[in-house]
Design brief:
- With 269 residues, this protein is mainly α.
- The protein has one domain.
- Helix content is 77%, strand content 0%.
- The protein is built from eleven helices and no strands.
- Helix 1 packs parallel to helix 10, helix 5 (74-95) packs parallel to helix 7 and helix 5 crosses helix 9 (186-210).
- The longest helix has 27 residues, at 242-268.
- The protein is globular and about 50 Å long.
């Protein structure tokens, strides 16, 4: 009984940490929940599938907080989410044809490159902590340059394919692209990424549920923690300057790269 309560508390804590990452950086948080619940007793396939139900409420919770601050560009998030959802399936199929270990090494390399790029961009970003004024609807005025629908479709498709191929959350791919290539302010990039992450999670949730990959006890406990965690994460980002957000996210990506790459290289050695 005591062990069961400790496991339950651990899963809730993982959900809260996942929510903080989602709110702060616009990512799904599975990078910690998947290995976390695996260590707490989930089977490998349950560790993958059971994290998916918690992604949607965390992304929605963070999105609501950012939308109130006028930072969500719905056109960016919804377009990338829609096209990315389609290509994520193709990426997952291709992943089944390749050596998974080397895919993880490639993931680590991608994340390390993105982390360094974003951290360096933070050195050039303004220190002003005031939130740029965004939109609360797709046709509202924004202060940043608005990419074309075609460009957003390409970015979303590419991010979705890479997410499916490498098994990482769409936000880890989208936020670096939004800030580096599309030149979105960091907070707008994080907020809009959460919209895309929410859209990405729907087909994944349906697929894993139909295939019986979800242990709903783990899933529900993660969901208990993820919503308050997402509120805390988005609160921290809203109070930070654009420079700080970029630096935090760059460091986060580098840490994830070391974790992914180090473990996989040890297995290959």
């Amino acid at each position: 009984m005591e062990d069961s309560l400790l496991v339950a508390a651990g899963v809730v804590a993982l959900g809260a940490a996942s929510g903080v990452l989602a709110g702060m950086f616009g990512v799904g948080g599975a990078v910690i929940t998947t290995p976390g619940i695996r260590a707490l007793g989930a089977t490998p396939i349950q560790a993958v599938g059971s994290t998916v139900p918690a992604i949607l409420p965390g992304a929605i919770s963070g999105t609501v907080r950012y939308a109130r601050a006028g930072l969500v560009d719905w056109r960016v998030g919804l377009t990338c989410g829609a096209t990315g959802s389609l290509l994520a399936v193709a990426g997952a199929w291709v992943a089944g044809l390749l050596d998974a270990s080397w895919l993880m090494v490639a993931t680590a390399g991608l994340l390390a490159w993105s982390g360094v790029s974003i951290y360096r961009s933070g050195r050039r970003a303004p220190e002003d902590g005031a939130a740029p004024q965004g939109v609360s609807d797709p046709d509202g005025p924004v202060t940043h340059q608005r990419p074309s629908v075609a460009a957003l479709a390409v970015v979303g498709a590419g991010a979705g394919f890479v997410a499916g191929l490498l098994g990482v959350g769409g936000g880890i791919v989208l936020v670096p692209v939004f800030t580096s290539l599309l030149r979105l302010p960091a907070k707008v990039a994080v907020a809009s990424s959460l919209v895309a992450v929410a859209v990405f999670s729907v087909p994944a949730l349906v697929t894993h549920a139909l295939l019986g990959h979800i242990d709903w006890t783990f899933a529900l406990l993660l969901m208990v923690g993820v919503v308050p965690g997402a509120q805390l994460g988005s609160h921290l980002t809203l109070r930070a300057s654009d420079r700080s957000v970029r630096r935090w996210f760059g460091i986060f990506l580098l840490l994830v790269a070391v974790l992914f790459g180090g473990l996989e290289l040890l297995d290959l050695a």
